[in-house]
Structure formats: structure tokens, C-alpha cells
Amino acid sequence: MILFDASTLILLAKIDILGIFIANFAKKVAISDKVKEEVLEGTTPDVPFIRKLIQEGKIEVFKSKEKKLGRKLVEDFNIDEGEAETLAIAIEEKASLVATDDKNAIRACKIMKLEFTTAIAILVRACEKGLIEGDEALTKLQKFQSLARYKKRIIETARNQIEGVAKYGKKNGKHTNG
């Protein structure tokens, strides 16, 4: 199972790759109840699409069983409730992957030894797997630059990976966590 936080879910929806990811991810795709609340209260154009994915059961919604853990994660790692609930559920449900672009949530994943990925890593992986063409991936990467606060180095690394795939073909399943 992969658990998304709100920002990563929204970023992937904004660059039109969330549907592609969900259609090609073999395991369960899930969000926390708090992330659902955060995403659906928004007014961005991607809200109806995400709502539809939830209604169709393509994104499952989980509630954390351990509220104390969520509160402790908020305090210990200076993260928002949505990220904290996502990490708490990842621990409770033994999720295989957490999708987050939040710097402090990534730090928490590293400390708690939770596997994680980012929106950019998902984009690069989609290109590596041939789900999108290199030119399209580069266009989506440019969108990322305007939508999110990624370090220049991360964008450049992703660009090099995508250009490498476009030039030399699919990789052998290797990608970075950005």
C-alpha cells in the first residue's frame, strides 16, 4: 500500500499523472481521513477528479487508530496533522511506501525507516516504465517547477534522469527518492 499526503496527491493531480499512477500501481492507494478532508475542502480544479477517485474506491481512506501517535509526530517532527496521520497509518497498516514532498515528513520517514517517494520520483518512474514519453515528462517537470518549491538540484537530477530515459530507453527499475 502507498499512502499519500495532501500536497503530493494534489501535485500529481495538477500535472495529470495521478490517474496514470493509480492505474499502473499494483498495490492499494490510500490517504488518511485528514488528507481527504484537506484535499476536498480545496477549490482547485483537481478536487473533482480526486473526489471521483475516492468515490470509485481507487483511493481508499483510512482513519488512524492511534491518535496519540499522530499528536506525537506533529510535535516531534513539526509536521501538519495530515502528514502526521499519514505516517501514523503507514506504521499501523505497515504500508510499503509513503508519498510525501514535505521536508519534515521526509525526515520523519528516514528516522522511522519508512520507505518514501516524492511526486518528482513518481514522475521519473512513470517515464522509466514507459507510461509517459520523455517529452511529456519534461513538460510535466516544468509544471512542477512552477507549482512547488523544489531545489534546483532536484529538478536538474530529475531532468537528467528523464533525458537519459528518452535517449537510452527504459531503465532497469532504478529511481531515486528525489
Account of the protein in words:
With 178 residues, this protein is α/β, with parallel strands linked by helices. It folds into two domains: 116 residues, 5'-nuclease (Rossmann fold), CATH 3.40.50.1010; 50 residues, no CATH class. Helix content is 60%, strand content 8%. It contains ten helices and five strands. Strands 3-2-1-4-5 form a five-stranded parallel β-sheet. The longest helix is centred in the C-terminal third of the chain and has 17 residues. The protein is globular and about 50 Å long. The two termini are 20 Å apart. The C terminus is likely disordered.
Structural class designation: alpha/beta
Runs with pLDDT <50, length 5+?
172-178
Gyration radius from CA atoms, angstroms: 16 Å
H/E series, N to C?
EHHEHHEHHEHEHHH
How large a portion of the residues is in β-strands, by DSSP E? 5-15%
Q: Kindly report the CATH topology of the largest domain.
A: Rossmann fold
| Main beta sheet | 5 strands, parallel
CATH architecture assignment name of the largest domain: 3-Layer(aba) Sandwich
Q: What's the helical proportion of residues?
A: 55-70%
